[in-house]
Automatic annotation (TrEMBL):
Organism: Ferrimonas aestuarii
Protein name: Uncharacterized protein
Entry keyword Transmembrane: yes
Transmembrane regions: 27-44, 50-71, 83-105
Keywords (A to Z) from UniProt: Membrane, Transmembrane, Transmembrane helix
Highest taxon in the source lineage: Bacteria
Keyword Membrane found: yes
């Protein structure tokens, strides 16, 4: 009970009060899973693509991840869901290293 009051006072301090189930939270979590799935598929197909195609595919995935990271930062700032940033940031850094390594050693 005291945890709920502490969480409630924390949310009120940030100016955001969550009432009931949050459907946007579920959609956002599914977007993170789709992000990882797309990243894995691009990494699997990367060796079979030409240099230009791999750069376009990798750039698109990185753009998708950076967009998702910006949305996560807005959501974390608004609702206090900072834990959402970790899987997106990890995937973005991993993809940057994979694309950079592929381009350098192609």
């Amino acid at each position: 009970m005291s945890e709920q009051k502490a969480a409630s006072s924390t949310n009120k301090a940030s100016g955001f009060v969550r009432n009931g189930p949050d459907r946007l939270q579920k959609v956002f979590l599914y977007l993170i899973l789709v992000n990882w799935l797309v990243a894995v598929l691009v990494v699997m197909k990367l060796p079979s693509l030409s240099l230009f195609s791999s750069l376009v595919a990798g750039g698109s995935v990185i753009a998708l991840q950076l967009t998702l990271l910006q949305l996560a930062k807005l959501r974390a700032r608004r609702a206090g869901d900072g834990y959402l940033l970790y899987p997106i940031t990890a995937c973005t850094i991993l993809m940057v290293f994979v694309i950079t390594g592929f381009v350098m050693f192609y």
